[in-house]
């Protein structure tokens, strides 16, 4: 299965058991596989260079271009540009035209959409930023692995927060409100005049903003512990003209009671990062109005560990090793969930927090995610 945001099938729903066909590779087989992985790493980080330096965007807007033209238009060095362009063509990302004395390089529409169209559900151009953020902290990660410490979201910096925001934004913008509107009882709650909605761990605020556009009679309160994210979300809300109905606070989910009561609460792709998720869920439950639900969106990983896994689980283990688990463990005491939060783990957290039941909502084909409804009654 090839992992792309609009084609991922949530694991645990298929019929194949990956352990049945597994076998130990020979030395030659594993060496070949590991070389492929090394090439993929080089490709991924080359995309980081092209995305951050504006080279892909320049090729979309002005290409095909020679190395000198690309360097001139982007205020970068021509020798580095030529090496990068040739490498991109060698990997089949860019097209090279060798018919003239000066080789030109172009980008095809499909590649351009994935790497530069930030409104497309297929957009992945920012994805390497998350690994770049982590790789820049490898010495701290090694120390954390030895001592049981961590590397915080704040330490990972702008690359990490901008990556997560950019990858989720097209899904929140286009699909979040319609997905929730299809769940009648949730839609009715969000549509109530004067409804007050919480967004716990809002990041750049794109989830909150999407819901605020869809439900104009509601007000929204966001809580997040990352100061830079709070400012980014406030700027985004002001740019959308929603400053009067959307408030973003620098506060943890444990402080939800002080801002309630809420007619509904959401936690989008953040619960697995929290060092103390039970405390956050318990505080949110106490902040909910009678009968109000909490919706948790988190990774749609398989139901249980079974050894060899599909590509989605593998990707989430990658994020867990380098980003989410170290972030969670940077704030002790931590339950150290990690990105691969199984449904049973979430159910256990919800039960400890005092919720009566957890149901998986019938929202499918929503990027990498699964939606849970936590109920108080």
Structural write-up:
This protein has 377 residues and is of the alpha/beta class. Helix content is 48%, strand content 12%. It contains 15 helices and nine strands. It has helices spanning 27-52, 55-62, 67-74, 78-90, 109-116, 127-135, 138-147, 153-156, 158-181, 184-191, 206-214, 227-239, 277-287, 311-329, 343-352; strands at residues 95-97, 104-106, 196-200, 219-224, 246-250, 264-268, 294-299, 357-360, 369-375. It has a seven-stranded mixed sheet, sandwiched between helices. A two-stranded antiparallel sheet has the order 1-2. Helix 1 (27-52) packs across helix 6.
Please give the structural blueprint:
Blueprint lengths: L26 H26 L2 H8 L4 H8 L3 H13 L4 E3 L6 E3 L2 H8 L10 H9 L2 H10 L5 H4 L1 H24 L2 H8 L4 E5 L5 H9 L4 E6 L2 H13 L6 E5 L13 E5 L8 H11 L6 E6 L11 H19 L13 H10 L4 E4 L8 E7 L2
Parallel strand pairs: 3-4, 3-6, 4-5, 6-7
Antiparallel strand pairs: 1-2, 7-9, 8-9
Total number of strands: 9
Q: Number of folding domains?
A: 2
Q: Helices and strands: which structural class?
A: alpha/beta
Share of helical residues: 40-55%
Spatial gap, N to C terminus: 39 Å
SSE order, one letter for each helix or strand: HHHHEEHHHHHHEHEHEEHEHHEE
In CATH terms, what is the fold-level topology of the largest domain?
A: Rossmann fold
Question: Could you tell me the strand content as a percent range?
Answer: 5-15%
- Tell the overall outline: globular
Mean pLDDT: 93
Backbone CA Rg = 22 Å
CATH class of the largest domain: Alpha Beta
Uncertain residue ranges: 1-21
- What's the story with the biggest beta sheet? 7 strands, mixed
* Number of discrete helical segments: 15
GO molecular function: methyltransferase activity
Domain Methyltransferase: 193-305
Organism: Gordonia alkanivorans CGMCC 6845
Domain S-adenosylmethionine-dependent methyltransferase Rv2258c-like winged HTH: 44-116
């Amino acid at each position: 299965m090839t992992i792309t945001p609009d084609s991922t099938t949530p694991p645990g729903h298929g019929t194949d058991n990956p352990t049945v066909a597994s076998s130990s590779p020979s030395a030659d087989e594993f060496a070949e596989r590991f070389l492929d992985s090394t090439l993929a790493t080089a490709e991924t980080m080359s995309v980081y260079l092209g995305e951050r330096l504006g080279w892909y965007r320049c090729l979309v807007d002005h290409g095909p271009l020679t190395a000198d033209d690309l360097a001139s238009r982007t205020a970068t060095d021509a020798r580095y540009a030529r090496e990068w362009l040739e490498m991109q063509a060698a990997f089949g990302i860019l097209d090279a035209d060798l018919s003239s004395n000066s080789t030109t390089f172009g980008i095809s529409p499909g590649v351009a959409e994935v790497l530069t169209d930030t409104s497309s559900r297929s957009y992945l151009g920012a994805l390497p930023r998350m690994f770049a953020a982590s790789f820049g902290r490898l010495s701290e990660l090694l120390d954390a692995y030895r001592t049981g410490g961590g590397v915080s979201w704040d330490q990972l910096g702008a690359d990490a927060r901008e990556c997560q925001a950019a990858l989720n934004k097209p899904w929140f913008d286009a699909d979040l409100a319609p997905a929730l509107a299809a769940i009648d009882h949730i839609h009715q709650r969000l549509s109530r005049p004067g409804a007050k909605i919480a967004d716990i761990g809002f990041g750049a605020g794109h989830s909150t903003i999407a819901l605020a556009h869809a439900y104009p009679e509601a007000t929204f309160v966001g809580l997040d512990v990352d100061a830079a994210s709070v400012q980014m979300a406030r700027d985004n809300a002001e740019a959308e003209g929603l400053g009067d109905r959307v408030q973003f606070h620098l506060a943890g989910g444990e402080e939800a009671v002080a801002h309630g009561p809420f007619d509904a609460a959401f936690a989008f792709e953040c619960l697995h990062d929290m060092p103390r998720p039970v405390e956050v869920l318990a505080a949110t439950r106490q902040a909910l109005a009678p009968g109000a639900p909490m919706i948790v969106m988190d990774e749609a990983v398989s139901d249980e560990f079974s050894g060899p896994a599909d590509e989605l689980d593998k990707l989430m283990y990658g994020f867990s090793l380098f980003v989410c688990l170290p972030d969670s463990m940077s704030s002790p005491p931590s339950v150290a969930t990690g990105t691969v939060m199984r449904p049973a783990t979430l159910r256990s957290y919800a039960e400890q927090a005092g919720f009566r039941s957890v149901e998986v909502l019938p929202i499918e084909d929503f990027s990498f995610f699964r939606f849970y409804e936590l109920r108080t009654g």
